[in-house]
Amino acid sequence: MPRHTAEHTGERIAQYRKLRRLTQRELATRAHISYSMLTKVEQGVKPATPSVIAAVARVLFVQTVDLTGQPYVAELQQDELDVLIQPIREALDLYDLGVDTEIAPRPLDELHSSAEQLCALIRETRIKDAARILPGLIAEATTASHGSPSTKAWQVLASTFRTAYDITSKLGYTDLCVVALDRMAWAAERASDPILAGVRQYLRALVYLRSGQFDLGKRLVGVGMKALGEADAGRLREVAVGQLHLGAAMLSARSGDGGAAFEHISEAARIAETTGEATKVYWLAFGPTNVAVHQVAVLAEQYRYAEAVRAAEQIEVPEEWPASRAATHIAEVARAQLWLGRPEASLKSLQRARELAPQQMRYHPMVRETVSGLVSAHRSTPETLTSMAHWVGI
Fold first, then answer.
1. Of 161, 146, 165, 267, which is closest to residue 210 (Cα–Cα)?
2. pTM
């Protein structure tokens, strides 16, 4: 079946369901979701939640990206982002080729500063700017690491691979973000950095969270915790441990284990009381704010949308918090508001998310699903919603 021809996930679910010769009721039963929810999702009246997408994908024997339609090629071409992917792909293949004699790498401190700047660009959601710079920096850091190997050199190289993961995952290139994480593991091993290894397992768990492979994601969290057990005690390790608990909370919530999810939230909250806000520690944005945001997400994953919105209203996001993370949280609230029958509030939330992180939100499947639901909810589409729909490619 041709991919990406349908405008929203519900249409794609319906197409694959018919291809598998299943009725809506049969699919709902096999996926352990309500028939009413499935019909609303297929009609585009309500946005498909990640847990619903994952459950349906397993029954239909497809990947979650087949249902969400990622990557959104037409929009990537319009933004001239598609041409930046191939150079990243090629740069990731340099990892074991040794020194490139045509490259004279800058001093290590300068490379480290450049790698940190790329992380900052990603948090500001300046994806295009970061994607332009990244391939050259990977090549330079690769030659520097092979030419003068040291813990810091390998850490810098691992950071560039981390940025490759960030860019490709945000743009919907799941296969490439997995390659980037493999490269990150390769560099982290040479750096002998257990915290970096633990962070890599956290990011890897997120890949499986998005693909609906929750049990495997939980196992990866356990591997990450084990790696962090080898690290020196201190704030850096605590931040990484706390973030792994937040990842485990989301995995538990989407797999239907709300009790375990809140246990992980509680443990993360305890750790956050000690660490405080740590927005730049391995660029994880851990701290009390992230714990509160994850609590909202856990409530939403359990379809407790009214509680999720009330909890979100109590959160004061610090000014220094990453725009990428803040926008995702607001988009999550927008989805909950739509499910509660508050389309005007949902649209306002989406507008705020767009203002904060336009490049990221344009390619976020949850934003697309919510916009589709808003279009269906309005008998007469207001100009602001029409503009939003065109912006995301609907």
1. 165
2. 0.90
